[in-house]
Design goal:
By secondary structure, the protein is α/β, with parallel strands linked by helices. The protein has 17 helices and ten strands.
Length: 409
């Protein structure tokens, strides 16, 4: 994270002062973001019935979908997290994308290639994402987002996307606070806009898999893709908007490198393994480094003499980052049989489900982004809840004024 993100420029007004301005930052990762739902459900049980605990919600890619849904039900308080879990429980792959595969004999690289070529011609991407558009229109109450912002339940909803046109990384934010101004940093921009389904589709447009989405910025149209691309500073938006406490939930996979067997390392990777690795690179954000930088600078600020700290236009930020404690690739491998037949056959043809070849640990990496099916979703949610229980004390510290003394069930 650039130091100027955390330390406000003297030429700009300081962020809004609020002792408890909490932000929820949700990273991207396709179906993997069901993990976030488990963490949040456990958090809701920890906080018990009460007011919605976040003032700012910032989401990237599928994390933006989770964030927007939470914003739409924020007036339910902590029960909003159970609502989000209920939404994911009924979600299926055919609610998110459609893939029409050629069914000619056993799946192989040729039939997979022909299938994907036909998909690109029809939909400008490997997958038809119209089902996701329809799902969002059916289940996402955008007027309720505006109502939550208007009555103060929530201060800001923001989503990120990457412009294929300009190469800049954008944060689009919606707020009822007229004093919240746009900002610009090298390679990064922010603009106040009314968040709609197009913004969410742009943020979640995984490169190659989902088509680019046009949005209007600076009076002209630009094409946008997944917000995880070029996301150099995941915490910058929350800090700029004045967050004093940040809970960030990622779905990163730091364990991937150690999953491949010694014998497999010398074998040539399949097309599916390469595709899975490429997607992992897209979602391999700088989150951990950003968190460590924020914590390090905040500790320095907290150690300043009170008289000096009172004169400065910036404050320490408390950051808690939760990420999966187990391999999501291996978890996906146990559930690939749940994929729709067309998707499974195409991935099999690409070699993405072949565990005997090189890249064994990432054999199901590509599938894990597309597995919006009950078994995988429930397993991710259970992992998220378990990880949250392992961090109860840290969560209590972040939500100290709101948390009770009870444990997460």
């Amino acid at each position: 994270m650039a130091l100027e993100t955390l330390i406000a420029s003297p030429f700009e007004p300081p962020p809004p002062e609020r002792p408890e301005r909490r932000a929820l930052v949700l990273m991207g990762g396709g179906a993997r973001t069901a993990y976030q739902v488990g963490v949040l459900r456990a958090l809701g049980r920890l906080l018990d019935d009460g007011a919605f605990p976040f003032h700012l919600i910032l989401g990237t890619s599928a994390g933006a979908l989770n964030g927007a849904y939470l914003a739409s039900v924020a007036r339910l308080g902590t029960r909003a997290f159970e609502q989000l879990a209920a939404f994911w429980t009924q979600l299926r792959s055919h609610h998110v994308y459609q893939l029409s595969a050629l069914r000619v004999g056993r799946p192989n690289l040729l039939t997979a290639g022909l299938t994907l070529m036909r998909q690109v011609r029809r939909h400008r991407a490997l997958l038809d994402t119209m089902p996701l558009v329809q799902t969002l229109h059916r289940h996402l109450d955008l007027p309720a987002v505006s109502a939550a912002l208007a009555d103060g339940t929530l201060d800001v909803l923001a989503v990120t996307a990457s412009s294929y046109t300009s190469g800049e990384h954008w944060t689009f934010f919606q707020t009822a606070d007229a004093s919240c101004a746009p900002w610009r940093r090298p390679g990064r921009r922010a603009e106040a806009q009314l968040i709609d389904v197009e913004h969410l589709m742009a943020s979640a447009a995984i490169p190659f898999l989902f088509p680019a989405v046009p949005l209007w910025v600076d009076g002209h149209k630009e094409y946008f893709g997944d917000g995880s691309m070029r996301q150099l500073s995941p915490l910058s938006g929350a800090i700029h908007l004045g967050a004093r406490q940040i809970l960030v939930i990622g779905v990163g996979q730091p364990q991937r490198a150690g999953l491949t067997t010694a014998a497999a390392r010398s074998e040539e990777p399949s097309a599916g393994t390469i595709a899975g690795h490429a997607l992992a690179s897209v979602f391999h954000d700088t989150l951990q480094a950003d968190v460590e930088q924020a914590q390090r600078v905040s500790r320095t600020l907290a150690q300043l003499p009170p008289a000096v700290a009172a004169l400065l236009p910036y404050r320490p930020v408390q950051v808690l980052c939760l990420q999966p404690s187990a391999s999501l690739d291996e978890l996906a491998l146990k559930h690939v049989h749940e994929l729709p037949a067309a998707t499974r056959d195409t991935l099999a043809g690409l070699g993405a489900l072949e565990t005997r070849r090189a890249g064994n640990g990432s054999a199901a990496a590509l599938a894990s982004y597309l597995l919006f099916e009950p078994g995988f979703v429930q397993a991710l949610m259970q992992l998220g809840e378990a990880d949250a229980r392992q961090h109860v004390q840290a969560l209590r510290a972040l939500f100290a004024p709101a948390a009770s003394n009870r444990t997460v069930p």
